[in-house]
Specification:
8 helices; 0% strand; mainly alpha; elongated; 257 residues
């Protein structure tokens, strides 16, 4: 069994080394002149605007269901008035950023992996390299920066929409004014709640873009590798989201509490 486990570990170590080399190439091209601003803006539109609908619907349902699930428990303890505060802290700290990142990993990482994978299979990337263009700067840098920039914005919008969903859920059985509800929500959120959550969404966005680009850019020859690149990009990006979340939570607990 030990002999059978060696190739798997060797493959994992080789891929880790390839990712480090790919990351080095990303930073080297990041600070090189001739940044593709038009492609960056286009990717921000593709990644941000076209993902907003899915993120918004998911966040709304998440806030709605979370409020409906929390209310009976808080009523049993006579703490129904704490529902807006509990809902706000839960969404801002953890649920909003992580759920948004998972949604983006499923949509964005798979899309980038499939797009670059198909370009690799059809030798478009090789053609760009031969023609003197810089495929790393044009295809990878712009997409990674776009995800790093847009995922935090999507998470912030998702938090707001989730709180709106919670407000509607509360008013299904009670009558609470919007001003009172959002005043309690804002009053419950402190610096130590918002800052770590926002910082980790930046790392979430970078991981989603980087993994999607790496998987697509390094696709093997053959049409079946396009689907494999998209699938592995989603799996790897989702795993990295949970790893980053655990690390940031531990660091923030040490520094802020």
């Amino acid at each position: 069994m030990a002999d059978q486990a060696i190739p798997g570990w060797r493959k994992w170590l080789e891929e880790s080394g390839d990712q480090v080399v790919f990351l080095k190439g990303f930073f080297r091209n990041l600070f090189r002149g001739g940044f593709e601003w038009s492609e960056f803006v286009r990717q921000c539109y593709e990644i941000g605007y076209k993902s907003f609908g899915l993120v918004g619907i998911t966040a709304f349902i998440m806030g709605l269901v979370l409020a409906l699930q929390l209310r009976p428990t808080l009523v049993d303890f006579g703490a129904e008035s704490m529902l807006p505060r509990t809902l706000a802290v839960s969404i801002i700290r953890e649920i909003g950023p992580v759920i948004t990142a998972i949604i983006c990993a499923g949509k964005i990482a798979s899309g980038i992996g499939a797009e670059l994978g198909s370009m690799k299979v059809t030798e478009q990337i090789d053609a760009m390299d031969i023609s003197g263009a810089n495929p790393m700067q044009y295809l990878v840098v712009t997409r990674v920066l776009a995800t790093t920039f847009m995922v935090p914005l999507l998470a912030l919008l998702g938090d707001v929409i989730g709180l709106i969903g919670g407000y509607i859920a509360i008013n299904i059985q009670n009558s609470v004014s919007g001003m009172l509800y959002f005043h309690k929500c804002v009053g419950a959120i402190g610096f130590s709640d918002f800052l770590p959550a926002f910082i980790k969404t930046i790392f979430f966005g970078f991981a989603i873009g980087f993994i999607g680009c790496y998987k697509g850019y390094n696709s093997n020859r053959g049409t079946e590798s396009v689907g494999l690149s998209a699938n592995s990009a989603v799996v790897a990006a989702s795993l990295w989201i949970f790893v980053i979340d655990a690390i940031v939570v531990q660091i923030s607990n040490i520094l802020l509490y």
